[in-house]
Amino acid sequence: MFSQINSILNAVDDKVWGLWLIVLILATGILLTLRLKGLQFSKLGSAIRAIGKKSDEGSGEVSSLGALCTALSATIGTGNIVGVATAIAAGGPGALFWMWLAALFGMATKYAECLLAFHYREVTADGHILGGPFYTIEKGMGTKWKPFAKLFAVFGTVTGLFGMGTFTQVNSISSAINTFFDPQNLWTVTLFGNEYSWTVVIAGVLVAVFAALIIIGGLKRIARVSEILVPTMAVVYVTLGVVIIVANITKVPAALAEIVTGAFGFRAAAGGALGTMFIAMQKGIARGIFSNEAGLGSAPIAASAAKSAEPVQQGLVSMTGTFFDTIIICSITGIVIVLGGTWNTDLQGYAITNAAFMQGIPVAGKLISFFLMVCLALFAFTTILGWDYYSERCLEYLSGGNMNLVKTYRWLYIVCVFFGPYMTVSAVWTIADIVNGLMAVPNIISLLALSGVAVKLTNDYFTKS
Fold first, then answer.
1. Which of 99, 287, 422, 454 is deepest in the core (most CB within 10 A)?
2. CA angle 202, 203, 204 (to 5 degrees)
3. Which 8-state DSSP code applies to residue 77?
4. Which of 44, 56, 15, 159 is closest to 110 using CA atoms?
């Protein structure tokens, strides 16, 4: 039965993440890069310096830093640790190259989508901010496009409930904890007709309980938790990865060469290079978007709630999320995996990354494995929080502001978190890929239609400043 379900999911995934969507996402990033005159490169330094600045102007629910950390809480997670591993395992080291390329152009995409969401946001009757691609589509493209806006909101709700927000995250947390504490599955219990380690069961219950305690508090509580956990764990993870790379610095040039040659199928047998290149491209871009969410339309929901004076300012701050997520954190994960060669083994998901980090510094392998487990658990936990906020806002838009329905949804979301550990790994990631792709389509189309508005707002801002 499970094999049949996986076959169906893989077939759907191949259709959704076919060449057409890859071309659409990359072309959008390239177009926006050209129209914005490479803003993601020329203004990156200014954007990074603006992250910590407080703004007393403009209305909003959280600071620009809080909005960025909320967005990063949903992006820096399993995609950086597990997603990179699954991409390289499926598409080879070349998948990392396509992650980089998608991220560089994706920074322009992230800038534009967050700028537009901030520009078209609304203040609801009870005074809180509501914004995102649904309002960008409805108000920017016109009310006749409202069904298209609702389509995005439907996909966003489903993505949070069954894809990015719940199953993938808690599944990865429980898997990491199980790998560290009970790798041989010596302590097991039978649930739902299958045998699971007690570590999986306990982890699932604890994650669901802690998530409930924070989620019930709403955006401000999620933002406060994210502002503490995200920067702290990002620094710990980056430091850990850099130490391993420096310890194996003589192998880095060969690893980088393997990444570049693998991206274009140069190592493939005659006649098979194009197919190998497409697989690397497909897996790299799909997992890259899963990780940094550029073009997906999720980060603009958080950006629209920021206290900032100008849409352009918030767009610049928001685009740094893609830089930190993929260019820095995913790169560290990918290079460590290629250095260790663990991608080309029988290992899956988190186990690939864990083995690579342990090989990086063998004398402290167990300690490094512990830190990696903690990083993944906290990254994934904050992703659960961030995606609850995103999907709640999508549901609020769909229901016309019915907050009773939103509060009921929170409990359904927590129930999905509880059952996440018992989903199969392959099915979990395939479902996430499918709903990601479906969510991206209406958002990307709106960016293409409203790219002129983004360019005008940008030009007007820099002309005045």
1. 99
2. 90
3. S
4. 44
State how far the Cα of 445 lies from the Cα of 183, in Å rounded to an integer.
45
- Give the DSSP per-residue string, 105-138: HHHHHHHHHHHHHHHT-EE-TTS-EE-SHHHIII
Strand partners, 196: 189
Q: Provide the token pair at 197.
A: 């380690």
State residue 453's pLDDT score.
95
Helix crossing, 273-292 with 94-119: angle to 10°?
40
Q: What is the pTM of this model?
A: 0.86
The string over 191-230, giving b where at least 16 C-beta atoms fall within 10 Å of a residue's C-beta and e elsewhere, is eeeeebbebbbbbbeebbeebbebbeebbeebbbbbbebb
Q: Each residue of 337-365: pLDDT tens digit?
A: 999 989 888 888 778 988 999 888 877 77
Q: Compute CA 295 distance to the chain's CA centroid, rounded to the nearest angstrom.
A: 11
| In the block, residue with structure tokens 């009921």 | 408
Distance of CA 453 to the CA centre of its chain: 26
d(CA 408, CA 162): 16
Closest CA to 416 of 167, 229, 204, 216: 167
Cα–Cα distance measured from residue 296 to residue 156, given in angstroms and rounded to the nearest whole number:
9
The DSSP-derived string for 355-423 is HHHHHHSGGGHHHHHHHHHHHHHHHHHHHHHHHHHHHHHHHHHHTTS-HHHHHHHHHHHHHHHHHGGGS
